[in-house]
């Protein structure tokens, strides 16, 4: 996992919503959400699930860098 990529994705998903709105909906503090969005911390698994549910997407989409997975798939095809 790449903290910077996760942070960027979380900010993009939040869009125009305030941190307070998202934090309250997910049952976390505004400061915790801010730390996730600057890449200072990675949330616990249960919070990952809450964030994914709130944003209506998968945990994998938010917290796993797709480029790395695509690279692995390409290497498998070559073999």
TrEMBL record:
Q: Which SUPFAM superfamilies match?
A: lambda repressor-like DNA-binding domains (SSF47413)
| Annotated ranges, domain HTH cro/C1-type | 10-62
Q: Name one GO molecular function term.
A: DNA binding
Q: Which PROSITE patterns match?
A: HTH_CROC1
* Name of this chain's protein: Helix-turn-helix transcriptional regulator
Species of the source:
Mediterraneibacter hominis
């Amino acid at each position: 996992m790449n903290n910077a990529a996760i942070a960027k994705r979380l900010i993009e998903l939040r869009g125009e919503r305030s941190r307070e709105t998202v934090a309250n909906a997910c049952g976390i503090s505004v400061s915790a959400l801010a730390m996730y969005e600057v890449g200072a911390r990675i949330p616990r698994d249960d919070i990952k699930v809450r964030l994914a549910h709130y944003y209506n997407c998968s945990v994998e989409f938010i917290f796993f860098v797709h480029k790395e997975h695509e690279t692995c798939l390409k290497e498998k095809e070559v073999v």
